[in-house]
């Protein structure tokens, strides 16, 4: 009976989708069929997402895949699995589906029946719609409480009965209270403690086995409905779809997201209608660390008046701490000098004129200490374990944030109970939050015990505490500044070194410019006016690496229109700057590293209005001034002191890891000392 109803619902939704998108099924051959597209669309159709140009479905059982770059809404039986990925090998759970021969289907009806059975047999009957039935330990002991509580004191028995039989509390509340009660038991109730612990361990094992079976089954069956998108280079897929569907279209990740892949569109939305398109998605994952506040929290993930207030205050604090003047520049030069000394020490320790090393940690400590000094008023010695743990948390969070499991959780929060990625993401995120809260409390104690209440704040946290900002908000703001201010700058500098190793002629021209204009004196921010080639190299690296490949999603704060389409409040928007960076009309031979594209015939730096490595509009990077200064001073100082070449004659790969940030794959390089800067 279930199978019949699900089949009817599936066919009904497919019919609706085909009608509303003015598309029809066309039988092409015994092993292939396709939804053929017509040029008319229905922008005013009232649904939860705008009717933007849609794609084609293409099914070929011989390939065992279905591709839909941008989608009509998948039917409910498929929707949970329409997540873009080239394969499922990046999931924690893997099954034997890769070695199995896929079934062959010759028509739509047979295929839909197959998918319906998948949902019925492998999902609906195995995942309870009420997760508490799977995880509520009180359910498993409720019918056997007398035996379970045998040998325990009357007081403990009363407490157990009161918790387990309370109809007004959720299973999470019961579970928490039971855990707390058992943890406080004395030696007289040791037997109950042991029974409870064994039951929890058994439940955990059963849960893991069940999750492995379910997710493996989902992986085995859902491969046919996964879209094809390059997770490390999403702009490549976006550009391909832009050529076919125009500069604005919808993708499903797995919820609907409108992609803007044109500079003029970005100007129209993020600048001309800046307030309207300055919102953030108030989805499940975006609200995990802010306790799902109505307008979010922190700087990056808040919106409306809350975001405006946080941004204004942060800019004022930055200005007070010398952002854009000599005070901040001196801080950058100080930590850059420590970086140079560390690298020279490594060369000296090798006993040779060169050394082979990984620059990741030295650069991370340099940039990280600049941010730490600004936010926390402290710094770390090279190799400090607390700093390394902190960096590890950041890396994991940024990687998981745009991972396939978290995209699914964001759309279907109930499945979070099945995905270890969700637990890791939460564990690391809250650990990071506790790290900042600990430092906030230390600052607060220092302020309370200070003899002078009128002392100027020493760092970002001091300034916030003196203005009585909520501690959780302050912790989120600190994390936002640290994440946004460190990881993108470190990643850009690492990529610059890679491209200089691949292009020694470019490195030679940079050395010549530095020797001519600076010699051996210390570089300063004012020197940029005569360092056009160095700036052009930085610009070209920023363009080609597209350090935030997925950008940070926006959302509309009210109903509006976009290119003639009606857009509802809360619609999620993805500004695809990567598609602009690789637009052949703007950057000929865009895939080629070519710094001279940013120079005119006289060798002077060109400022393209469509070049926006720090974003555009009201949500552009808050720390742009700091990042520009860091990139110029650190890179110029590195090139002034060292020459970089391939280690063992093998240059680093240009491949990157998928994630929120375009992180290069780990590499080592050979460095040779040049001039001694004075």
TrEMBL record:
PROSITE patterns: CYTOCHROME_P450. Residues 171-205 form a coiled coil. Gene3D superfamilies: Cytochrome P450 (1.10.630.10). InterPro entries: Cyt_P450, Cyt_P450_CS, Cyt_P450_E_grp-I, Cyt_P450_sf, Cytochrome_P450_fam2. CDD domains: CYP1_2-like. SUPFAM superfamilies: Cytochrome P450 (SSF48264). Residues 1-18 form the signal peptide. One of its GO terms (biological process) is xenobiotic metabolic process. One of its GO terms (molecular function) is iron ion binding. GO terms for cellular component: cytoplasm. Pfam families: p450. Keywords: Coiled coil, Heme, Iron, Metal-binding, Monooxygenase, Oxidoreductase, Signal. Its cofactor is heme. PANTHER family: CYTOCHROME P450 306A1, CYTOCHROME P450 508A4-RELATED. Belongs to the cytochrome P450 family. This is Cytochrome P450. It comes from Onchocerca ochengi (Filarial nematode worm).
